[in-house]
Design brief:
Layout: H1 2-12, H2 15-35, H3 39-48, H4 57-64, H5 72-76, H6 78-94, H7 99-106, H8 117-128, H9 137-141, H10 148-165, H11 172-177
Helix pairs in contact: 2-3, 2-8, 3-7, 3-8, 4-6, 6-7, 7-8, 8-10
Amino acid sequence: MTKEIYDYMYHNISFYRYKHIQGVVKLSIELSAIYNIDQTKCMMASLLHDITKEMSREQQLTILGKMEITDQLVLDTLALWHGFSASQYVQDHYKVDDLNVIEAIKYHTIGTNTNNDIFRVLFVADYLEENRNYPSVIKLRKQIGLDLKQLTKLVAKDKVRDQKLKDQTVHSNLLGLIK
């Protein structure tokens, strides 16, 4: 299946997105080793988390149409669609059936209050991977090794701060991670 995924990415994903995905995969593998979490599942979630990010609006809407999404902020925000559409796409095209991997992909942008450590690894790795270069990333990377729940909370706090600075609506799931 991994070869099929890489073939898809080669033909459908920009070099920029590919580089980001590889950074997330690399950090997810490192985090899964530090926190003793299933490395294969973390790698799979990381590899697939942005699989639909560069699909057209129409393609994503077609995928989202297969899902029952009631979250109005997600429905109204194109930048949030790819987590949801990717979670459906990987089930349809790659037969991913692990609920923790699917949940991790689905909520990697907005967060979710769950005991799913695969989600936590992806959430952290997506924000801290080596190609990210915003001011707080170096400080946050130094926190790797803290309790994973605490690290997730720190990342969520930083995402909230960043979204408020950009005058973006902060999803309630993300706020729930910092309580």
